[in-house]
Amino acid sequence: PGLSINIDQATKETNFSRSHFCRLFRQQTGMSFTAFLTRKRVERACDLMKKTGMRVDEISNIVGINNTWYFKKLFCKEMGMTVEEWLQANCPSKASMEP
Predict the structure, then answer these.
(1) How many Å apart are CA 67 and CA 54, to the nearest integer?
(2) Phi-psi bin for 45: left (phi > 0), alpha (psi -120 to 50), beta?
(3) What is the pTM of this model?
(4) Could you tell me if 99 and 84 are in contact, meaning their C-beta atoms sit under 8 angstroms apart?
(5) Taking a C-beta distance cutoff of 8 angstroms, is the pair 39, 75 a contact?
(6) Residue 63 in contact with residue 41, Cβ under 8 Å?
(7) Please, where are the H alpha helices in 18-80?
(8) Is the C-alpha dihedral spanning 57, 59, 62, 67 positive or negative?
(9) How high is the mean pLDDT in each 10-residue block of the chain (99 residues)?
(10) CA–CA distance, 52 with 60 (Å, rounded to integer)
(11) CA distance 71 to 82
């Protein structure tokens, strides 16, 4: 989840065509490559927010999303709440990490 990777890079690494890779990936995981990668990035971000004192912009860079605004948008879509709401619910003492 920390790599800035996309589906084209993944297909090149595996030597599969894009359609074959997508079909196999969905069969194995039950979701698209992009959805899987987003989920893993958000899970890693949640773990980092719980265990570190890093700011959200630092964490978004670590998980491979260099645009903090976009990271927050993906986080909200994946978790059903904003980063701030998640921090308040899961890390009340760290809710002030937000830049």
Answers:
(1) 16
(2) alpha
(3) 0.83
(4) no
(5) no
(6) yes
(7) 18-29, 33-51, 56-62, 68-79
(8) negative
(9) 77 92 95 93 95 92 93 96 93 61
(10) 13
(11) 10
